[in-house]
Specification:
Elements (H helix, E strand, L loop, with lengths): L8 E4 L6 H22 L11 E6 L5 H14 L3 E7 L2 H7 L4 E5 L8 E8 L2 E2 L2 H13 L12 E3 L3 H12 L10 E5 L9 H7 L3 E5 L20 H9 L4 E5 L6 E4 L8 H15 L4 E6 L5 H9 L3 E4 L5 H11 L4 E8 L2 E3 L9 H15 L1 H5 L7 E7 L5 H15 L4 E3 L4 E5 L2 E7 L5 E8 L2 H18 L2
Parallel strand pairs: 2-3, 2-4, 3-7, 8-9, 8-10, 12-13, 12-14
Antiparallel strand pairs: 1-5, 4-5, 5-6, 10-11, 14-15, 16-20, 17-18, 18-19, 19-20
Helix pairs in contact: 1-2, 1-4, 5-6, 5-11, 8-9, 13-14
Length: 467
């Protein structure tokens, strides 16, 4: 059974992420948590103390039913549940410190979808634990004995989280002092945190699509240059320092400059990575990112005295752990990010778009967005999605490990995270999407259009041959 993609479980609620599946995942997660406690002595070891899960959801219409189903599964698996209501995903991750968590969200997917993302102590479950959950779901274990079922309660964790973000952000940059920011929360969960945090830090914030609505009437949940057209025009026509666009569960942000242009996601990543590297204690500062991230990040981190390590997309938490394990006593993972999504490691091990907005705003207040971007070399960069049914992806990627190097015989080849080719003047990466029926092509090169065209040609041939 293949349940987990690059960011939890996602899909249509009518035939994939159904209440029945949510119940089974909840029960499997409770049993896995008890077994985990027995392995490390943290609880669930027969002493009568149930493991505890916090359960939150985003604003989707189906969220309450899915959250209720996963809660039933957790309780019937012997776990105690604290329901925290409609919150951003980073709030749920924050609340899972010292316990377990389940976030009911499909992030930026369409409103007919929903999903489940699992946490322990603020960290997303790693691949090994996800596989054990999948196996347990497939066997569909019965409930525990009736008198071992866990209880449930409701609690507020959003207030504490918002204050924690404010306190953390104040350690970076300068006071906002009326800095004008436009925030398009996209009818998603950022509406419940980001404007409040920025105002508490002193900004003058104007919101677009600032109510939570699971139909996403203002724009699609995924923030793209096209879906953020209203925000871009609003910022360009107003007197704003910059604009921010959020996805449905507030774990990713898009930055718009004062001319209404989208700032490339890797440039935002490079700004934050350089800041955290320069702010680190002397030693071995490390930034963890993904194979599709630009070389501009490596350049700015190296200039600041650090180094970059890469990990597969959707596994920043695994990359952080690996970098720490492989490093020496002076190694510190100061920041981890994939395009649009950032982990502020001193704040917590989760991806957090609200914290990114707060820290970036303070850096802009200190230096200005233009000055932050000036040192960064922005080479031409493109992303293309090639249609590929899910059941062909394995065969397609196996073929591309042969055909892409044949098409680019002078390239250095790395197949650890898809197929990445290093060429004179840049690189290209091909990898399967973990959540949608596409193969993704990424490229950064002085002649990026020619590189992308040739790469897409090879990928399309592999998709056709796999039919």
């Amino acid at each position: 059974m293949d349940l987990f993609g690059t960011a939890g479980i996602r899909g249509p609620v009518r035939d994939r992420v159904t209440p029945a599946l949510a119940l089974r995942v909840g029960r499997a997660a409770a049993r896995e948590a008890h077994a985990d406690g027995e392995r490390d002595g943290s609880g669930g070891d027969g002493d009568g103390t149930p493991v505890e899960f916090v359960v939150g959801r985003d604003g989707r219409e189906t969220g309450d039913a899915i959250a209720s189903a996963v809660t039933s599964g957790l309780q019937s698996g012997g776990a105690r549940v604290v329901r925290v209501g409609r919150v951003p995903t980073p709030t749920l991750a924050y609340a899972s410190r010292g316990r377990y968590g389940v976030m009911v969200t499909a992030s930026h997917n369409p409103p007919a979808d929903n999903g489940l993302k699992l946490f322990r102590d603020g960290r997303e479950y790693d691949r090994e634990v996800e596989r054990r959950i999948e196996q347990a779901v497939a066997t569909e274990a019965p409930p525990v004995a009736w008198d071992d079922w866990g209880g449930a309660e409701r609690a507020d964790r959003l207030t504490e989280y918002r204050h924690a973000v404010v306190a953390y952000a104040r350690g970076h940059g300068a006071p906002l002092d009326g800095l004008r920011i436009a925030a398009d929360t996209g009818n998603g969960m950022a509406a419940r945190a980001a404007p409040w945090v920025l105002r508490e830090l002193g900004a003058h914030v104007v919101t677009l699509n600032g109510n939570v609505d699971g139909h996403f009437p203002g724009r699609e949940s995924k923030p793209t240059p096209e879906s953020l057209a209203d925000l871009r025009a609003f910022v360009a026509d107003g007197e704003f320092a910059f604009g921010l666009g959020f996805d449905g569960d507030a774990d990713r942000i898009v930055v718009v400059d004062d001319d209404g242009d989208v700032v490339h996601e890797d440039t935002v990543l490079a700004v934050l990575a350089e800041h955290y590297t320069r702010a680190a204690a002397p030693g071995d500062p490390v930034v963890v990112t993904t194979p599709n991230a630009s070389g501009r990040i490596d350049e700015r981190v190296a200039e600041a005295g650090g180094r970059v390590e890469r990990v597969r997309l959707g596994a920043l938490h695994e990359g952080i752990a690996a970098a720490r394990a492989a490093g020496g006593p002076d190694t510190e993972v100061v920041f981890a990010a994939e395009p649009w999504k950032h982990t502020h490691t001193r704040f917590g091990p989760w991806i957090d778009g609200v914290a990114s907005a707060a820290v970036l705003a303070r850096l802009v207040a200190e230096s200005g967005l233009g000055a932050l971007r000036d040192p960064i070399t922005e080479r031409p960069y493109r992303k293309v999605s090639v249609d590929c049914p899910d059941d062909r992806k394995t065969a397609v990627m196996a073929a591309l490990e042969r055909t892409l190097p044949e098409a680019f015989p002078d390239a250095a080849v790395d197949t650890e995270h898809g197929v990445r080719l290093e060429l004179d003047g840049g690189w290209t990466l091909v990898r399967p999407s973990g959540t949608e029926p596409y193969v993704r092509v990424y490229a950064e090169h002085d002649d990026v259009d020619a590189l992308v065209d040739r790469t897409v040609e090879v990928v399309e041939a592999a998709v056709t041959d796999a039919a």
